[in-house]
Amino acid sequence: FYFLEILKNSSAISGITYGNNQGEFLYVARQPEGNDSTYLTKIINIQGDQKEQKHVHRKPDYSIQSQNLFEDSYDPRTRPWYNAFTEQKLLWTPPYIFYTSQNPGITVSIPSINSSDHLVGAFGVDIEISSLSSFLAHRQVSANSSSFIVTHNGSIAAHSNIETIKKFNDNGQLQLVNITELTENSRITTLWDRITSIDRKELLNGVSLDFNADGKKYLAFAQSFSEDSEWPWIMAVMAPENDFIGTLRKSKRYHLLKALAYSIAITLFLFLLAARFLKPIRKLLQHAHFDPLTDLFNRRAFFEITSKMLKHANEQKFPVCIAMMDIDNFKSINDTHGHNVGDEILVAIAGRLRSALNEKDIIGRYGGEEFVVLLTDATADQGLKVCERLRGAISDTPIQSADAEIETTVSVGLAPVPDKALDITQTLYLADQALLHAKKAGKNQVVLAG
């Protein structure tokens, strides 16, 4: 639900993506509907040579409206935003057509790095050209000014007047526009001709220009950013000279002041752009340790956080236990009711675990239908009582799915962490062995290791 919250609170972005180097994928997109927004989630899970693809449609309150399995050839590793992984840096893509919405836009993306400093994938935030253009439209330097952003080859990423760059294909969908195609707009084509005639090194420092178009004189400022930089664009601001007649026009330092004003406008724009569009993706990086389905810590994050907690426990001399938990007969639930219901079971159990545990305890999704819990300040006896409470919280009340009421139980293995232990590897093994004993003894019970 974290991705959904970002979309709800960041109207400028249209979607959030995550893909890893195995080809797994998570995409959450806003879909305007009346005065509210509904949400589409696209999930690709890969287990061995099995690939499962699922669409989930959610209402404005995030409740599930519908869901279905589907098949297509989508692979996140082939998309432009995934270059953040291959190039190992934050990047803004050139404009391209989004796969799902088929609207033109750009994506700002960052590599995802695990706790071992290994690259594992990339996060991306989608920004439609219409949204970026609206952002430009509200930040003009004079009454009749206009501005645009283009790539070095002329592909338009935004224009302060979106109508200027709207172009539709035969299916009525917006398509990409190159600035050289805007032949009916002499202001833009004239300015672009001037920009492309300037030495690239000079353009990197920003250039002040005068030019004539449509019988008027225009003033402009253009600045290029290196194709290897965080902002691989050319940005330009222009306005009729008449907009500046007055005190500024009479100044002997008119051209210097005008160039300075435009340069400040572009610098301010970049600052605001970063604040508005990079903030969500930096939040994503901070939250990359969460399992997207259950919103619990993923396995990698669980190990990272428990390592820090063990160090703290050793310093403060308080006991710690590890509990391994497995949903009983989960395969049967999936086979009988389908994977969608299986996902609902996982989400419901994650919620019950959160409600039943102390805030200091750490919960993670270990994999599949397995959960792992670090019980802080708990002896073996205290840990047994907590685990019995967790088991009861799940078994005492059936889980209501969209299709049926499901009787669900869990088996739990518990192991205390030895004093002065530096990691939980051995304790996890003991807890897992205790979990196997619980399964063999009839399930729906807690077994203490040893």
Question: What does this protein look like?
Answer:
With 450 residues, the chain is α+β, with helices and mostly antiparallel strands. The chain has three domains: 2-128 and 282-286, PAS domain (Beta-Lactamase); 131-276, PAS domain (Beta-Lactamase, 2-Layer Sandwich); 299-448, Alpha-Beta Plaits (2-Layer Sandwich), CATH 3.30.70. Helices cover 34% and strands 30% of the residues. The chain contains twelve helices and 21 strands. The protein has helices spanning 2-9, 83-87, 129-137, 186-196, 200-204, 247-250, 254-286, 299-316, 330-337, 339-356, 380-395, 425-440, and strands spanning 15-20, 25-33, 36-47, 50-58, 64-69, 91-92, 96-97, 104-113, 119-128, 146-150, 156-159, 207-213, 216-224, 234-240, 320-327, 362-367, 370-376, 399-400, 405-406, 410-416, 446-448. The strands form four sheets. Strands 1, 2, 3, 4, 5, 6, 7, 8 and 9 form a nine-stranded antiparallel β-sheet that branches. Strand 1 and strand 2 form a beta hairpin. Helix 10 (339-356) crosses helix 11. The two termini are 39 Å apart.
